[in-house]
Amino acid sequence: MHRKEIWIDGDTLFYKDHGHLEKANLQTLKYAYVQILGDVPFLFLFADHQHYISTELNGFDEVYPELSERFHFDNTTFFAVSKAKKEDDKVKIWTKKMAQNYQILDSYPDDEDFGYEVYTAPKQMVSWDTTYEQLEALGCVETYFSDFGVKYLRFKYPVRIGALLILQLEIYAENTRANAPVQEFFVQLHDETNTDQSYQQLRELWIDEDIDIDQYGYERNDQCHLRFALSKGIEASICYTYDADYGYDDGSTSLHLYNQRQYHHLLENQAYETVMQVTEIISFHKKLDMSISYTKSSAIKNVPSKIHQLLKNQSGVWVDDVNQKIGFAGIDTALILDFDEIKYFTFQNILPAKGPGYADFMVHLSTEEYLYVFTADTYFFDQFAQRLEQMTKIAVEIPQAYYNC
Known about the structure:
Blueprint: E1 6-9, E2 12-17, E3 20-25, E4 29-37, E5 40-47, E6 49-54, H1 60-71, H2 75-84, E7 90-95, E8 102-104, E9 115-118, E10 124-127, H3 132-138, E11 141-145, E12 151-155, E13 159-161, E14 164-166, E15 170-172, E16 184-189, H4 197-206, E17 217-219, E18 223-231, E19 234-241, E20 253-259, H5 270-273, E21 280-283, E22 300-302, H6 305-311, E23 316-320, E24 325-329, E25 333-338, E26 342-351, E27 358-365, E28 370-376, H7 385-392, E29 396-397, E30 402-403
Parallel strand pairs: 26-29, 26-30
Antiparallel strand pairs: 1-2, 2-3, 4-5, 4-7, 5-6, 8-14, 9-10, 9-13, 11-12, 12-15, 13-14, 15-16, 16-20, 17-18, 18-19, 19-20, 21-23, 22-25, 23-24, 24-25, 26-27, 27-28
């Protein structure tokens, strides 16, 4: 007897895909399609992420009726498309009906430059410069994690941004420093028709009719995507994807808000710069920018002026035995860590294939996390491996290169 390759346990759908067991949270299911790929009908589900499920899996004939009964799939379309097996055919068989989760207000204060208003009791204005830890302390957000363990914050109250009132605004909070201002807000906006009406309303609210739309993005049959300045240092993007060859229409407009303001005080490091001692230094003899932003790590600071002088404004690595620190100098910023924070280094070389070739300089931390510090041409960092080991007394690993497929 063949083992089942697909089954349902409570609210979780389990299925095999290329030998791996995958799972879909049915409580988060947003839409479903039937799609023909390689002459095989697939059930395509979007539940937190994309799931392509072959109808040839052992057990599919038992699982599909259960799914269809629960969500009321369009069975006539599913079986017709599956039987015809027309390559690349893709037809929606179900979409979740979403309640409208925003409102365009007729009257509102002109306060977008300052921040946003949270509808607590009483309401409170929150500055765009408010940090993650300050926002959590206000008690107006709650933390949740995705199926992949990614951290998010979600507002427990409606939020007004200018004339737009949003019922459940969210914040991406993974790999961020708690004392930095919030960098990214997002939400999927549905109007009552679950069509692109949400996109059209935001466009009318924020984009002048007489502007050249190509300056802000594009509007095509498959997708519309615009990015523009919402207020001082705050950019917004709105995106709607239609049911096209490579797109799936879920009836929502993706709204993202990006904090582009500069917070130079987070880069200051005067306490260390006044006592720093440079024991040894490696120059890369070229300028390499840091791969880490100061909004992600508190260890990112301004490059000390002494290091700029010694490296002649090039990039490199220095050791400070007196203060037990290792610094990695980029163009304008540097990563500065204590000796005991570093476990080992990796120079990972990637060979050109479908994608370009390059090399990553990685620092593995004692916390089992790792940081991508620099990126350069393939094999560029290898020449510095022996010197870096001698200078820091920390191992450098150079794994086998692999192709960028």
